[in-house]
Amino acid sequence: MNPRKALLILVPYLWLLALFLVPFLIVLKISLSDVALSIPPYTPTLDLSAGWAGFRDFLSELDFENYVFLSEDSLYWKSYLSSLKIALISTFLTLLVGYPVAYGMANAPDEWRPTLMMLVILPFWTSFLIRVYAWMGILSNEGFLNQFLLWTGLISEPLTILNTNTAVYIGIVYTYLPFMILPIYATLEKLDASLLEAAEDLGCTRAGAFWLVTLPLSRPGMIAGCFLVFIPALGEFVIPSLLGGSDTLMIGKVLWEEFFSNRDWPVASAVAVVLLAILIVPIILFQRQQQRQQEAEQ
Amino acid sequence: MSDPAPTSRPDVFAPWNDPNQRPLIQFQNVTKRFGDFTAIDDLTVDIYAREFFALLGPSGCGKTTLMRMLAGFETPTEGYILLDGQDIGPVPPNKRAVNMMFQSYALFPHLTVAENIAFGLKRDNLPKDQIAARVDEMLRLVQLQKFAARKPHQISGGQRQRVALARSLAKAPKLLLLDEPLGALDKKLRTDTQFELMEIQEKTGTTFVIVTHDQEEAMTVASRVAVMDHGKMIQVDTPDRIYETPKSVYVADFIGDVNLVEGVATSHQKDGKVQIHWAEGKEPIIGTPMQPIADGTRCTFAIRPEKVHISKEHPEGKTNIMQGKIIDIAYLGNLSTYHVQIPTGEIFKAQSANTRRIERRKFTWEDNVWLWWSETAGVVLTE
Fold it and tell me: Which residues of B touch A200 (CB under 8 A)?
């Protein structure tokens, strides 16, 4: 490898080292420490002035206590499971909503497409937090949705949606919808229209051609979209804490409470490390799938 | 046909000359408009079973629209298209006994070669063993047995073309449409594939309609060629007649290379020949029109370069002799085309076979040469 190439590769590696690996190692270290009434609220801390012996002392004080604790208290694994469930269901719901939108966009007249694309991206121009607050206004007992439904006479009692899992699903689907639409749209837009004509020519109905050609060929987009929704949804914190109720169990919320309510940084760090370990699985699968896709396109 | 009928041998395939033959496809006054644009303009033509019918024309001439109407992707604005005597206008593409081979091949990238070929058969809900047998037969026809399990992106362009052909033939359609089927292949492969196409067409007995802008391809494969322009068929004829006896200047000019000379005809000779006065103070060109034409008719004399003889010495006892200077030579390997300028400035093209090696060639630039052609070599066109 020539020096110029090496230099070029060094930049992203340094970036990742400084902004990802070092913070991760710090969190990992905290997760192996013990909680303490001090600043920072854990012990031991590394004292470089003590030299090699100090470093050895420091290492000997680290242990896996917090991880053992996580496995003993059912709250944690229940939260992980519940997060997985909520992330899976909301990913599926996002796919159900996102696919028809992407399909409609890909089949819209050329001159409409930039506008439709704009509408999908538009929500990103406002703060995420404000948009979630807006949903509180829509979903609450006196909110717009209930007022509207009462006005139409469909219901006589206001529905309790806010502070339930339903509100969390609505929030996640709403927030992550663009991440589902865009990759699906990208695959549908690339789809050669003559493939559908060929399918019809060979005896397919329109619906048959969709089922046998469009759907399988947009699978890479669906998979990419699902990962892009599932991965952040698993660790989601803002949506469950603002829209969810007391029975909404998500690991992101538990993590936040450990850090800020309990001030138990070591346990919180252990929760974070385990979450990361869980997330590595779908991330690797996603990367593999992307790679396969690229190879297939060559 | 008003032209002198070619000596008809019984084994020559020419159902269009047989009044007892019923055409497989009939276009009856078909017009197709897209908004203000008329893609097909009041077109009537018959295509017969087992024909290899070529639609030839520049882009935008309507040939693709015509084909898409046959496939069912477009419906005529006016007129009828009959297949086997039945109006197929209201029949959707998936219910027609017509299959199409797409220009881009349109192979399903997520299916293997065998699955691609089986695609149409499966839609007919045939039993599995029948499908397998038919797929096998098709693979054998296009010699792709070894590649049955490959995906389209794992085979070469030529092989993809053959898969597309096999897929469109698998359902044994009454009519196969080929949209620029060889456009994506390189020249050598294209020539080979042309012959393969003809062989397959003969073997399966399917009627082929091919769309192409490559005249050589149309001439090679087709039993009849339709030259199209602006939504109309200018001439429908066998390749040799299209080339040798074009009915209009457009066709003469579109197909192959040609010398065109405009002039006024006088037909004072008894044997039907005419003199074409084409320039002041020039010997008139003597030509043989296919139909008698009146004195003083404006006409165009068209002659193919290979029918113009070129020689260093004055040809004795020949007609239509001209002298000129070679200003350009296009060397094509087997042939050379000489651009000869006569003293009044007009340029004639003459072509001769390079039967000798280049260093022994008779003519070179700036040489003074004589051109001549026989009285029946060219055609006299009034359209």
Answer: 72, 92-94
